[in-house]
Design a protein that fits this description.
The complex is a heterodimer of chains A (337) and B (519). Chain A is α+β, with helices and mostly antiparallel strands. Chain A has two domains: 253 residues, Multidrug efflux transporter AcrB transmembrane fold, CATH 1.20.1640; 75 residues, Alpha-Beta Plaits (2-Layer Sandwich), CATH 3.30.70.260. Chain A has twelve helices and four strands. The longest helix of chain A is centred in the last third of the chain and has 34 residues. By secondary structure, chain B is α+β, with helices and mostly antiparallel strands. Chain B has 15 helices and 22 strands. In chain B, the strands form six sheets. In chain B, strands 1, 2, 3, 4, 5 and 6 form a six-stranded antiparallel β-sheet that branches. Classes of the chains: A alpha+beta (337), B alpha+beta (519). Chains A and B meet through strand 4, helix 6, helix 7, helix 10 and helix 11 of A and strand 8, strand 21, helix 11, helix 13 and helix 14 of B. Strand 4 of chain A pairs antiparallel with strand 21 of chain B, so a sheet runs across the interface.
Chain lengths: 337, 519
């Protein structure tokens, strides 16, 4: 234990290089991904618009695929089975313009009419999906910035700065809601950057611990996003929920760490170790609970699968970012004070 | 306290116990509704004879002709006699509900007038994606202001009501580009032609030649006959592929429209016993039927016009049903008229009720496994049965409180809501672990330590709280999350309920429990 403490005392600044490298690589990858695909995620039919039909059938996916490919090109089939591996349902997704032809071809193939009793269909127009997607992005950005504001308000001092931060965040909200992604993207981006830089500057100047919490949360999102893309997950609205849950969970451990260190009655290392024990128990409990749940329901291929998978990736990065990124920064901050 | 095994029930623990008890009542009812015998009547066709006798939606059917009804099968067997009746034959039924008793003669149509379902175990309502149903978002071709949207909702509501759909919810949806959309949610199984019902404008026009005599809506049409001799099936006859039935109903025109009719017909020449041009009916620009105009009507101010049409089917009954449906549709169009804009469905989801059951099962399964996993981890970490038990019990009570609150406010639990419950419980377990760990820390007084734990918990609570706000749709005045909120609102709502009741009720109680376990 003492050996590790000594090692950490000499090296805690150096190990910051690890998350820095991973973060930069992830950002590079996401930029590259954006340039290639025009977006930072792979969107599934719930976000791009189109049709998804769920039918209860024993017919094999391959058979259906061969048949459907005669009439439409761009479609996908997912098989859903129960715990014994028996197929229960097929989900067929296609582009919006293929809706009617898909239904017709399916009915031809199945030799019965699709009704609201024997099938589920979800159709969303591309324009509406695009709009929902934008609004969700805005909601997530705002959630993130408002969380930062709360963390800042709690870990900083000085009424004037606190007031400034609150006002800036409310203005930022109005900007995101009314102008962002609507007017010229370049101008929007510039205003966005001004707000972000102003807020980050205040956070760094007035409260390094608050900044460290948010940096860890940010790194968490970016790294998870990069892995989600590398693995090839097609994100649905449910996936976006997962990111919101992830921000919440990761900020919890960061707040625990920060509070324990700032209000400590013992040495920094003792406090850090105590926080580490509690924090990892929290995260590992979540990881084990989610893994078991995921195994239990994996074959159903429901939206919960995606939420749980993204949470697992994210919680892994949370361990990394809380106990390396955040811990090192706050230790550094306390040592230099 | 230190050496006694008995837990002191503090004030905060009492609050938790009371709230859990209230939640149980909220979820299961008092007395538990599962113990109640009978079937719930989910809908009664308006103006049917049994409706006029006083049977209403929401009543609990207990017996028919003295035969006790517990399951849907009981109902079917009790109604067997009436199923076998010939058309126009009637039989006596004694319908005993919890609320009233009805004795009357009924014919076969009663079977279609009533729909029932078994009394559900809990009062929890599930959302569309679990229970099945349909949801549609409708956009107009011009930007709608609030008044126009309200008109649209009123007309659509009326239209769906005429079609016998009553469990329908309408709401406004605003997109980020400022478009006002109409949202519709229909629970349970939905009609196959829902798209047409919602989006088809049903713009009705009656023309003679190129001149419009009257259009649908209450400006030109003062009344549409829907009962008795004003609306009926006039005749049925065999056709090539089965049967065909004609219907006829009377409409009453406003004076202005009647005058138009007189002016236009005045110009026409007489051709035998009819006028030279016919009265043509158009729906959405498509000609649906045309009537010969009797020569005696030339130039006359007629306020009453008979509209007729037909329906076909394989058998006579099918033909009658189809004619009735046709008539109803036409009547609706004539009553509700049309709005000055075209509609487009931008999103429509139809979820089969059968597929939703699968989901519910797997969610329970996932929850069960997660709870077992959490209990094991906590036990391995702390090696204390009591602490682990307390943690799992408090977490389960949190689930109950969330469900109870959801049942109380009538929130429909959909998949995002369930994700929200998972999120809230996860946060709850995290917070309890913090309390347990702080309580074990021996360097400060227990009060100090619990205070520190609660500080961390309240900070974490506040961050999650503000993060959920953009998803609730409360910030639509800021232009945030108005449309998307509809889809993910459930997540925000259950998370908010969970973390708020957690921080106010279960965390303080758990802190007291943890303190006692450590003392």
């Amino acid at each position: 234990m003492e050996k590790f403490e000594n090692w950490h005392d000499t090296n805690y600044k150096k190990i910051l290089i690890l998350p820095a490298i991973v973060l930069i690589l992830s950002l590079f990858y996401l930029t590259f991904f954006y340039l290639q695909t025009g977006d930072i995620i792979n969107k599934d039919v719930t976000l791009t618009g189109g049709i998804a039909i769920t039918i209860s059938t024993q017919v094999s996916a391959q058979e259906l695929e061969t048949y459907l490919s005669q009439t439409i090109q761009d479609f996908e089939i997912k098989t859903i089975s129960d715990n014994t591996g028996t197929q229960i349902q097929l989900i067929i997704t296609a582009k919006e313009q293929d809706t009617s032809i898909l239904i017709l071809t399916l009915e031809e193939f199945l030799e019965y009419e699709l009704t609201s009793e024997n099938s589920s269909t979800e159709t969303t127009s591309a324009s509406l999906s695009q709009d929902f997607y934008k609004q969700l992005i805005v909601a997530i950005i705002l959630a993130f910035f408002w969380m930062s504001a709360v963390v800042f308000l709690i870990f900083s001092k000085g009424k004037k700065t606190k007031f400034q931060v609150i006002v800036l965040n409310i203005l930022f909200g109005f900007f995101l809601g009314n102008f962002f992604l609507k007017t010229n993207p370049v101008i929007s981006a510039i205003i966005f950057m001004i707000f972000a830089v102003a807020l980050i500057r205040i956070y760094i100047k007035k409260s390094v611990p608050a900044f460290a919490v948010m940096l860890a949360a940010f790194a968490n999102i970016i790294m998870t996003l990069a892995v989600v893309n590398i693995v090839g997950i097609q994100m649905s609205t449910a996936g976006i929920i997962a990111f919101l849950m992830l921000i919440g969970y990761s900020v919890d451990t960061d707040i625990l760490l920060t509070t324990r260190l700032l209000r400590r009655k013992e040495s920094v290392n003792k406090a850090l170790f105590g926080a580490f024990k509690t924090g990892t128990t929290m995260t590992i409990t979540s990881i084990i609970a989610i893994t078991t749940a995921l195994i239990a329901i994996y074959s159903f291929e429901s939206v919960l699968n995606q939420i749980f998978t993204i949470l697992l990736i994210g919680l892994g990065f949370d361990l990394f970012n809380t106990w390396i990124t955040n811990a090192s920064i706050i230790k550094w901050h306390i040592q230099t004070k | 306290m230190a050496h006694s095994d008995k837990m002191k029930i503090t004030f905060r623990i009492w609050i938790l116990i009371i709230v859990v008890a209230l939640s149980l009542i909220s979820v299961f009812g008092l007395p538990p509704q599962a113990l109640e015998k009978g079937l719930i009547i989910t809908s009664v066709e308006q103006n049917s004879s049994v409706f006029q006798d006083g049977l209403r939606e929401g009543m609990t059917l207990q017996s028919i002709n003295g035969q006790e009804i517990k399951l849907l099968e009981d109902y079917r067997s009790a109604m067997k006699e009436i199923t076998n009746l010939e058309e126009n034959e009637t039989t006596k039924l004694i319908i005993q509900t919890k609320q009233i008793e009805i004795i009357n003669l009924y014919d076969r149509t009663i079977l279609e007038d009533i729909s029932l379902e078994e009394i559900p175990l809990t009062k929890i309502k599930t959302g569309l994606d679990l229970r099945g149903g349909a949801r549609a978002f409708v956009k107009a071709d011009i930007p709608l202001n609030d008044a126009q949207l309200n008109d649209l909702i009123a007309v659509s509501e009326q239209r769906l009501n005429v079609y016998g759909l009553s469990d329908v919810k309408f709401f406004k949806v605003e997109t980020s580009s400022g478009d006002n959309l109409m949202g519709i949610e229909i629970a349970g199984s939905s009609p196959e032609d829902l798209e047409e019902l919602i989006a088809k404008q049903g713009h009705f026009e009656a023309k003679i030649g190129n001149e419009t005599v009257f259009v649908g809506g209450d400006k030109d049409i003062t009344h549409v006959g829907r009962t008795g001799s004003d609306a009926m099936i006039t005749e049925c006859f065999a056709v090539q592929e089965g049967e065909s039935c004609n219907f006829q109903f009377t409409i009453f025109l406003s004076e202005a429209a009647a005058q138009r009719h007189a002016d236009i017909t005045d110009e026409l020449s007489i051709n035998g016993s009819y006028l030279s041009k016919k009265l043509d009916f158009f729906i959405d620009g498509q000609q649906t039927s045309s009537l010969n105009i009797g020569s005696s009507l030339k130039g006359s101010v007629t306020t009453q016009i008979a509209i007729s049409g037909s329906g076909q089917g394989g058998t006579r009954n099918e033909a009658i049903e189809s004619a009735k449906a046709e008539m109803k549709q036409l009547q609706t169009i004539l009553i509700t008229g049309s709005l000055p804009f075209k509609l487009e469905i931008v999103k429509i989801d139809k979820i089969s009720p059968n597929l939703g059951e699968e989901f519910s099962k797997q969610i329970l399964l996932a929850g069960l496994f997660a709870i077992i996993a959490v209990s094991l981890v906590v036990f391995v970490r702390y090696r204390k049965i009591k602490a682990s038990l307390a943690l799992v019990t408090v977490s389960l009570s949190e689930v109950l409180i969330i469900l109870g609150t959801a049942a109380l406010i009538g929130w429909n639990l959909d998949l995002p809501s369930i994700a929200g419950i998972i999120a809230a419980i996860g946060t709850g377990i995290d917070s309890q672990l913090i309390i347990l760990d702080e309580a074990r820390d021996k360097r400060e007084s227990i009060k100090q330590r619990i205070k520190k734990a609660l500080f961390i918990i309240i900070t974490a609570f506040t961050t999650t709280f503000v993060a959920m706000i953009p998803l609730t749709g409360f910030l639509s005045f800021m232009g945030i999350g108005a449309a998307s909120a509809g889809l993910l609102k459930g997540f925000a709502v259950t998370t908010l309920i969970g973390i708020t009741t957690g921080v106010l009720i279960s965390r303080p109680a758990f802190a007291d429990i943890a303190r006692q376990l450590e003392e």
